[in-house]
Amino acid sequence: MPPSLLTLEGFTALLAELKRRAHRLLGPTVRDGVIAYADIDSADDLPRGWTDEQSGGYYRLRRRTDAALFGYAVGPQSWKPFLHPPIQRLWRARRTGNDVQIEPEPEPAPAQRLAFIGARACELRALELMDRTLLGDGPGDPHYRARRRQVFIVAVNCSSASGTCFCASMNAGPHVRDGFDLALTELADHTPHAFVVQSASDAGSSVLAALAHRPATPQEIDSAQAVVERTRAGMGREMPSGDLHALLLANLEHPRWDDVAQRCLACGNCTMVCPTCLCTAVNDVGDLGGREISRSRRWDSCFTLDFSHLHGGSIRQSNRSRYRQWMTHKLATSQDQSGGCGCVGCGRCITWCPVGIDITEEVRAMRGAPSG
């Protein structure tokens, strides 16, 4: 279907139509000094007129000179928590007298279908990687499957690149290509304020048909393409080209690992904000009376000492070994695991690292110096 033009009023009607179809709207909001995903009711809840400044260990919101709804890069949160919750109950057991009954009582999936408003190209790539890992060709993860089913995605082509974005060099953005129902390119300086919209699914076409829209003119299509190209040219970082898998696995004893270990705090921030980190641990919790116990799955990080604890202790006791594990898995061995690089170039790990460790800089250092 050729691109259409949707006015700001049409976008407002889009949100109303999704609500009418019983979708729970999730989109970007300004909260606690960041742009975070949360429940929204209308376009008034979006970060109108806000943008972000990002660098290593630095994030600030700034006012824009226009009223763009999506004129920012990405905040600290991805869509991961809505599909792969930080805490997921797996089962519960109750004792009545001398009898113990185990009940497969996982936390139920949301009753409403979800609608993601404002998903970026890098985030769609992350969802693709999550699907490969948690669904695959087999039964997959039933909790993820229940949430992922029937998610409606309104994607947005990026109009602003932050100082830590490098999705272009990871072939993961800034232009959305697939994995969405509707894709918007915001033309904030268009008169009137409008969006070039593209449908990529039957569900998307059905929703678009219910809205007032018209075919986009060639000039409007060119303007939308120009927005994406400006964003591509404004990337703040670039991942060095070449075979990252071969590079990292050939440099497991590189002296750069010692250098980064001196700066790394092993806080795990990079894994918490990463849209593709899916590591978990399992915890059993009982009440003080011994009447009930439940088992839950919780997010974990390969930067914690207990994560690699086997009989006899942790096999990754140093920051060096833990950072190496994270980076080599993210850029190299994830390709063996799921067939795709585990990094989508969103830059969150750089922005939210307290000491500003830059994954692109680490790769560049290893490529430019001989192995130790």
Task: Name the descriptors.
alpha+beta; 24% strand; 372 residues; four-stranded antiparallel sheet; eight-stranded mixed sheet
Structure explained in plain terms:
Strand 2 and strand 3 (34-39) form a beta hairpin. The mean pLDDT is 93. 40% of the residues are buried. This protein has an eight-stranded mixed beta sheet with strand order 3-2-8-9-10-11-1-12. It starts with a strand and ends with a helix. With 372 residues, the protein is an alpha+beta fold. The chain is 31% helix and 24% strand. It contains twelve helices and 16 strands.
| N-to-C CA distance | 54 Å
Percent of residues in helices: 25-40%
Instruction: Compute the number of helices.
Output: 12
What is the radius of gyration computed over CA atoms, rounded to a whole number of angstroms?
22 Å
Shape: globular
Give the helices and strands as they follow along the chain: EHEEEEHEEEHHEEEHEHHHHEEEEHHH
Mean pLDDT across all amino acids:
93
Main beta-sheet annotation: 8 strands, mixed
Task: Write out the strand line-up for the largest beta sheet, numbering strands in chain order.
Answer: 3-2-8-9-10-11-1-12
Oligomer: single chain
Q: Could you say which structural class the secondary elements and strand pairing correspond to?
A: alpha+beta
User: Would you identify the regions where 5 or more consecutive residues have pLDDT less than 50?
Assistant: none
Number of strands: 16
> Roughly what fraction of the amino acids lie in strands?
15-25%
